[in-house]
Amino acid sequence: MNRNLNETPKPLFKEVRELILRKCAPAKEKQIRVIFEKQPFGELERLVTQKLLDVVKRVAKDELESETWLHSVARLSGRSYEALRVSILEFMDADAFNVSVENCESFLDPLIESWDIDLATFGMEIVLNRRLIPDYAKKFEFVEREAAQTEEEPGLKEFLRHQSVSGDATEEEIEF
Q: Does residue 84 contact residue 77 with C-beta atoms inside 8 Å?
């Protein structure tokens, strides 16, 4: 999809935003709503929406061949099995910029129980519907970490000890 980088993104449909806010942890819903309303479709709203979509799309992709799972989702979303099968392909192509109200009603609403975000670290926890998804909790974190110190592999140490094998390796080659 081509987008003009200078173009301001269009806000989410009111119904999509309301569904996302309804699924927010009750203790944070008011604070998140203020941020969303202050910056319509700003960075936080796009981040949350895209993460929710990513998780649900991954689940849908994994379960696509399970008729039992699709029937359960159809029943929970108030759609027919056939209608859900048709809309799942459209949903798989959706992103935060083009998610539809139907996508949300068919997939996000029945599959997501709740979500929470730590506004200091942007760590996000998404709880999925336990009746539909066995691995129901997902956590995403954006955390600064120290660079890992690389250790020589035991196999490399062994190689370097035997002159008959590593004899003409230069310091530069060994460092590499």
A: yes
Instruction: Tell me if 94 sits within 8 A of 106, measured CB to CB.
Output: no
* Alpha-carbon span 30 to 84, nearest angstrom: 32
Distance, CA of 141 to CA of 143 (rounded, Å): 6
Count CA atoms closer than 13 A to 7's CA, side-chain side. 7
Cα 57 to Cα 94: distance, rounded to the nearest angstrom = 9
Contacts of 80 (CB under 8 A, 6+ apart): 74
E-assigned strand segments in the chain: 112-117, 124-128, 137-140
Q: What is the pLDDT of residues 110-133, one digit of tens each?
A: 999 999 999 988 999 999 999 898
| pLDDT per residue as tens digits for the range 76-116 | 989 899 999 888 888 999 988 888 899 889 999 999 999 99
